[in-house]
Structure formats: structure tokens, C-alpha cells
Amino acid sequence: MRRTAEDILFFTNLALKNNRFPRNRISIAHDYSMHRQLFIERDEATGLLSDEVHLFVAGKKCVPYASDLRAAIAQARTSEAVQPDPVRTLPVFRYYADPFKSGVMSPSGETCQCCGNATGYIYSGSFYSVADESHFCPWCVADGSAAKKFDGEFNDSFGIGMGEIELSEAVIGEVSRRTPSFFSFQQEQWWGHCDDAGQFLGEIEHLDRSLLASDTGLNFRLGIQETPALSTDADWEWLIATPSKKRDVACFVFRCLHCGEMGGYIDCS
Predict the structure, then answer these.
(1) 168: which residues sit within 8 A by CB, 6+ positions away?
(2) Where does the chain show beta strands of DSSP type E?
(3) pTM score
(4) Of 79, 107, 142, which marks where a domain is finished?
């Protein structure tokens, strides 16, 4: 019970760093990115806690989730009963190596808000639109159905190429409307090279160390170490040895689909 209380206190304080998180609420459950949280309300006058559980999604409004904690647990268990169809092949994203490793897609019994089907998988990353819907199956992301139906983008089109190279409308359209996003502190950007968008490999924590030790990995490291906060070898070792949850710095890595060059950028909270 003590550890649970400490966790609730720690993650509520962490959630309050997001200005959009309600000030009078307590975080009781969350995904690893803190982008989706369950919380209960606290009456500021009396200090009493409500029974009703709400869902907070970063960048979106808060919505009711369950009447009480017991109902919230039952709801989560019910949804996980849906299993993926083993015959149906998952779509391949040209500009995203593995959205499951990065955590924006995961096995789930949740219903896709675009096609209305529970496929066994769900996308829960960023989606920019005037609508509240943001949870889609991989297929509705890949074929553009979700972006078309809700007139939205998974990745901000203005950040594709990072202002360094000019890309075709076709490339920008595929990355912004048919490619998953990734969890970031600030607005995500998309590195490009050889007149094309790069393939997102993931946060540096998820990369194979042999890739970082290669010639292209060394060139990438030298570029990252131009950042003042990561200028020394000790800073670099800290970056790759420290789990992302324990850092207020993220390093996002891409690879050119044509020449293999690696690139990316540093993101801070």
C-alpha cells in the first residue's frame, strides 16, 4: 500500500508538469509515455475524492471512463479479450521501422474509432484534428482512412524535413497522413535526407548498439554531440545507458532509405 501511494504521488506530480492536466485531479494509472492517464477528482474545498474515473489524453480533452475503480478495471480486462487475427498481415510503414517497439501501437481489444472494428491492435500516438478521435487500428492509419475521415495528421506536415530540405507533396502526405507518430516532449519533427523523408528507427534507447557503433552511427553521434548538453563522451554514455523514463532528454533517430545515413535530433522537456 505504501508503494502504491508513493507511485500515485510521484506520477501525479509528474502529470501536473503538463499544463493541460487538471489541477484538482490525481493520476491513478497511465501508459509508459504518460500520454494516457486515468485520474480521479479531488474536491478542493473538502479534500474528498470522487468515485468516478476519467481518462486524460495529452493534447485532448478529459472524458469519463468508468463509474468507479472497480468498473475501470473490469472495462480494461474486457477489452483485452479481443485477440488479433493471425491470418491478417500487419501493414508495413515505409517511413517507420517498428511502431510497436516505440509504443504508439500495441495489442489491444479497443475498437478502432475509424472503421469500428476491434482488430486486436490499436494506435494511441498523436493525431492532430478538430475531432476527439485518435485511436485507430494499424490498417486505418496505413491506408489513410483515419486521416481522411477526421481530416487530421499523425505528424505535423510543417515539421517534415525539419526545415532543412524540401520534400515532395507525396512524401509529406504519406508521412503526415499515413505514418504513425512517436511520443515526444515537444512537437515532433521528421528528419529527411536524399530528397526523401527518413525512416524513423526510434528513440535511441530502442536502437541496436551495433548500429550505433557502425560508421554511420559514429557520424550520427558526432552530430548529436554538437548539442551543448551532450558534448562529452560521458554525456553520450549517459544518454544511451539511461532509460528514457529517467531522462528529461530524448534522442530520436532516423535512417536514410537511400544511402543509409543516420540523422535525428534532441528533444527536451
Answers:
(1) 195
(2) 25-30, 36-42, 49-57, 63-66, 105-107, 121-123, 192-193, 196-197, 199-203, 249-255, 262-268
(3) 0.70
(4) 79
Q: Considering only CA atoms, which of 190, 145, 188 is closest in space to residue 171?
A: 190
Residue-wise pLDDT for 250-265, tens only, equals 999 999 999 999 999 9
* Residues 140 and 254 grouped into a single domain: yes
Together in a domain, 195 and 66: no
CA distance 263 to 265: 7
Residue 90 belongs to some domain of the structure: no
Name the residue range of residue 204's domain: 99-268
| 192-246 tens-digit pLDDT | 999 999 999 999 988 888 898 899 999 999 998 888 888 888 998 999 889 888 8
Provide long-range contacts, Cβ within 8 A and 24+ apart, for 59-62. 59/20, 59/126, 59/128, 60/132, 60/134, 61/132, 62/22
